[in-house]
Amino acid sequence: MNKKSNRLFSGASPEEVQQDLLPLVDFQSAGQPLAKLNQLIEEKLLPHLMRYDHAGFQSMYNSIPEQGAALGAQIALAHNQGVTNWQVSPGGAMLEELCCKSLCLLFQLSAQADATFMYSGTYANQQALYLAIHKKAELQGFDFGKEGMAGFRDPSRLVILTSRDAHFSINQSARMLGLGEQNLVSLEVGTNRQIDPQQLYKTLAELKGTKDVCCIVATAGTTSTGTIDPIETLLEAAQQCNAWLHVDGAYGFSFSLLPECRAQFQGIEKVDSITWDPHKQLGIPIPNSVLFVNNKQDFARISLFSHYFNRESSNEPNPGIKSPPSTRPMSVLPLVTSLLHQGMDEVLEKLRIPLQNIKRLTEHLMTQGDFRCWHEPDTGVLCFQHQPSHVPENHRNDLQTFIYETILSEGKRSISVTQLGDAVVLRILVISPSIHYDDLIETITDIRSIGMRFTDTVKEPHETANHQSQ
Ligand SMILES: Cc1ncc(COP(=O)(O)O)c(C=O)c1O
After folding, report:
1. What is the C-alpha to C-alpha distance for residues 105 and 344, in angstroms, rounded to an integer?
2. Is this model's pTM higher than 0.85 or not?
3. DSSP assigned state of 55
4. What is the DSSP string of 75-107?
5. In this predicted structure, what is the pLDDT of residue 266?
6. Which of 279, 288, 291, 284 is nearest to 107 (CA)?
């Protein structure tokens, strides 16, 4: 088993993984006893799964479920409740409604706020953009749910504004909602990767008279750098053009629970909608996503009733009228049991640890001549370049890619690589509170020693270049 080998996963190639897994999809007429199945899965599948509890896992938003969450997930699975309506699960439907109200209070949202659980942050973003377009249609005097895009005098005028660093689910939503990606306007970011207010107002002035802004999307914790956009400024801009303000806080909204981070979320209680993924920073099993709206009436824009459940006349809770799926799992339960088991003090303390470690790492790297940080971290993500003096500037991007690929191939840790402007940068992301500062320093040590090997790799092209210039 790879657990003993200190690798993140087996390290097998796609071909080898495929070979191992073929017996798992060889469906025969005769069944197999559970014990044998268990053994098969242990041998063939588990070695190839990623170990999110490994101290070297410093790249993605995944984590091993927190203990209380794992208990809730087991119970939810055992009872396999669909929770979209009272008829299918009175307890599940009520628990979800109650939890949504409590979450609105916990996050100090408006008194009229409400929420719904979703399958993923992607769908939460999509639904938020649907609500935004619907609201725009109302302002133009028609029901978007009935008339669709054809109701707009000129649908090509409709635009959504968001950061160039926004998650691709916003692009996906523009496609799925029939707006098309060309109606997504990308906003420039400033030095710390936040949407630049000056650029925003310049863009708005340019669009005036030719385009109708239906939504501005702020990101609270961008995927690449963890940056939190200036929410209150964007809210003012959205209000000026009668647009919806959506905050994609899939990753970062959790941090608004920390009193010391609250200022970065100023205005959050006034925005129209917020996406939040407890399956990212909070260690709740996938799928666990939530969409908040500022006013519970906002959900009426997406409500559809049926004759066999979710009836319009029903007085019982029917969470299914707040989002499209007619079947959803009881993902509320793992969140509830996790918060109850840990207590909010512990939840907050665990949120602080990655922030502190990433901040400390940044401070350290800033004193190292051979590293350059690309931003000051707002959350638990840091993008940087290794810039050893022996690697010329025009090879720096290649160096980062080389480091990334070498680290992945060694299998002891995982970081990621991303592109910010013209620069290829390395990215460390800390989700788990059990990743220590020393684990991050080990990664830096590894990066340095891999950087030394790069010298050999690029020697020839350099020498050639040097000869040519002499
Ligand atoms: C900022 C942001 N928004 C949305 C998403 C999509 O969320 P999900 O993976 O739950 O669909 C992600 C995923 O990483 C994200 O980082």
Report:
1. 13
2. yes
3. T
4. HHHHHT---SSTTT-HHHHHHHHHHHHHHHHHT
5. 98
6. 291
Vertex 63: Cα angle to 61 and 68 (nearest 5): 135
Residue 122 CB less than 6 A away from ligand 1:
yes
Please state which CATH class domain 69-342 belongs to: alpha beta
CB distance 416 to 429 below 8 Å: yes
For the chain, domain boundaries: 2-49, 69-342, 351-469
Helix axes 344-366, 437-469, angle to 10 degrees: 30
246 ligand 1 Cβ < 6 A: no
Give the tens place of pLDDT for each residue, 220-238.
999 999 999 999 999 999 9
Spatial separation of the C-alpha atoms in residues 298 and 282, rounded to whole Å = 27
Q: Is residue 167 within 6 Å of ligand 1 at its C-beta?
A: yes
Secondary structure of residue 24 in the 3-state scheme: helix
Distance separating the N- and C-terminal Cα atoms of the chain = 55
Cβ(219) – ligand 1 distance below 6 Å: yes
Distance 210 CA to ligand 1 centre (A): 31
- Test site for ligand 1: of 59, 118, 122, 228, most ligand atoms within 8 A of the Cβ: 122
162 lines ligand 1 (CB under 6 A): no
The answer on pLDDT for 463 being more than 90 is no
At the second CATH level, the architecture of 351-469 is Alpha-Beta Complex (3.90)
Which DSSP letter does residue 53 get? Answer: T
The closest residue, in CA terms, to atom 16 on ligand 1 is 223
C-alpha distances in Å from residue 99, one per residue of 91, 290, 325, 331 = 12, 11, 19, 11
- Count of beta carbons in the 10 Å neighbourhood of residue 341: 16
